[in-house]
Structures are given as structure tokens and as C-alpha cells.
Design goal:
nine-stranded mixed β-sheet; 14 strands; 273 residues; alpha/beta; five-stranded mixed β-sheet
């Protein structure tokens, strides 16, 4: 049974879902409802915000849910109602900690939104507010929500972001761990790289094909590889070994090389510019 009333999902084009916590109590306040399209209370109850999702197709008219600085157009804002008085370092969850129930429902709600609006599950299209600055290059004044789990504080923010996307993908797969990745196309600065696999918020492509486009070679062992003969991207990368071939997250390569990766839904292509 869907968690979101279909009447709350207007026909429009949306690019991404950004997840938040409200920084308040476990119930949605009137101010909370003004800023987010959907809110999740402590018991998992889903509340509709004051603004329609369609209001955020464009922000030109001044009437929209203002949930993420500089990134409201094309973005659906979903928030868990929690974390009043929280502090990042040293970490304190405040008087109304996020609950595991809220976290689970958050992933299920995001999955429904991705299914309705054909939004792929990538770090640029399904992300926490605290990932916006790193993943999209839009400054957010130190935002860190909702990337600390009060019941599992050992997970770092990057791990929590990946965990969220894995739960969203699992929900999209009907509750089963997805075995077959979503296959998409990739172009890197106008050059086609070929097919890539979207898995757990990452976009894996054959590292040899990436090296060919970049004009270098790769060396790797024990799940890591690095580019040889190229100043950037620097450092080593996590590699996925499948049948003797090494696959690498093209979004990580793009970020370290100073490029951006975007999703083109009509052609099912990740475009690195």
C-alpha cells in the first residue's frame, strides 16, 4: 500500500529528491509544512506540506517549498520531523532524536517519489541536505542533515548517504535486494563511454574504457585502482571486480577531475561535462 496519497503527486517533471530533518519536534509544525513537500512524523505518519510538488518546477514566481538553498527548482523536499537541539560535533541528538521508523519510512517515501517521477537513484538525484554542497557544488552553510543515525553513530555521513540510497533501491525492487543493476549510458565531455550500471547510488563503468577516453592507463589490485599518466583525477579509486574487469564509479572520477555529472532522463544517460 502506498505511503503517499496519489492526489499529492501532480503530473510534472522533477529532477531530484533532497532529504532533510526539520530540526524540531516529532510532529510537523505549520512552519515545517511550509518548507517541505512531505514530512514524516515519529510514528511514520506521512504529512503533506503546504506547497505542491509542482510549485517547485520553477521558483521564478516566488511560491514554492524553500527547503534547500540554491537548489529548490526541480527538487522535492522530504523531511523527518526530529532533532530539535541537535549538535553535530560533539554529536548530540537533542530532545527529539530521529527514530529508526522514520528512517525506514523516509527511504520508502523517496522510492515512491523516484518511481512516480522517473528519478534515478544516484548521489546527485537522491541525497541528503548535507550532501548537496559536495555532490552538487551548491554551498549550504554547514548543513549535515539527515546524515547521522542516532542509533548507529559509527556510520560516517558518506556511509549514511549510501545506506539511504541502497534502502531506496531495495524499496524500488519490492523489498528484495536488487540483483540486476539499472543499465544506463555514459558520455564524458562529449565522448561516449558506453553502458554503465547504477547500483547503490553509484554509476559503475569499465575502468579501461574510462582510461581510453582520458588518454591514460590504469593500474589496480585488491579492489583499488589509479590512473597512470594523468595529473587528475589523483589518488586511488575503489574498483568493483567483475569477471576479471575493473569497474569504477564515474561520478567519483568526474568530481575529482573537476567536472560535473548530470542525468538526462529521456536518453537514460549520465553526462559528464
Amino acid at each position: 500500500m502506498p505511503l503517499i496519497d496519489p492526489a499529492w503527486l501532480p503530473h510534472c517533471e522533477m529532477k531530484r529528491v533532497i532529504c532533510h530533518w526539520t530540526g524540531g519536534a516529532h510532529r510537523a509544525s505549520s512552519l515545517d509544512r511550509l518548507h517541505y513537500h512531505l514530512l514524516i512524523e515519529h510514528d511514520g505518519n506521512v504529512i503533506r506540506g503546504e506547497r505542491s510538488i509542482a510549485d517547485n518546477v520553477s521558483t521564478a514566481g516566488g511560491v514554492y517549498a524553500a527547503h534547500t538553498k540554491g537548489c529548490n527548482a526541480g527538487s522535492i523536499g522530504v523531511a523527518v520531523c526530529c532533532m530539535a537541539g541537535a549538535n553535530e560535533r560533539p554529536f548530540r541528538a537533542g530532545s527529539h532524536p530521529m527514530t529508526e521508523r522514520q528512517w525506514t519510512v523516509l527511504a520508502e517515501v523517496v522510492a515512491e517519489l523516484c518511481g512516480r517521477y522517473a528519478i534515478p537513484v544516484t548521489p546527485e538525484t537522491v541525497l541528503g541536505h548535507g550532501e548537496v554542497q559536495l555532490n552538487l557544488g551548491i554551498a549550504q552553510n554547514g548543513k549535515w542533515d539527515p546524515l547521522i543515525l542516532p542509533w548507529n553513530q559509527q556510520l560516517g555521513s558518506a556511509e549514511v548517504g549510501k545506506f539511504l540510497r541502497s534502502l531506496v533501491q531495495r524499496a524500488l525492487a519490492g523489498g528484495e535486494d536488487p540483483e540486476a543493476p539499472q543499465m544506463v549510458n555514459v558520455t564524458f565531455r562529449g565522448k561516449p563511454i558506453g553502458k554503465a550500471a547504477l547500483m547503490n547510488g553509484e554509476c559503475f563503468v569499465d575502468s579501461a574504457e574510462v582510461a581510453g577516453v582520458l588518454g591514460c592507463t590504469v593500474e589496480g589490485s585488491e579492489g583499488r585502482l589509479r590512473f597512470v599518466g594523468l595529473r587528475a583525477p589523483e589518488g586511488s579509486f575503489e574498483a568493483l571486480d567483475r569477471d576479471g574487469r575493473l569497474y569504477i564509479d564515474i561520478q567519483d572520477v568526474a568530481f575529482r577531475a573537476g567536472h560535473t555529472a548530470a542525468w538526462d532522463a529521456p536518453s537514460a544517460t549520465v553526462i559528464v561535462t
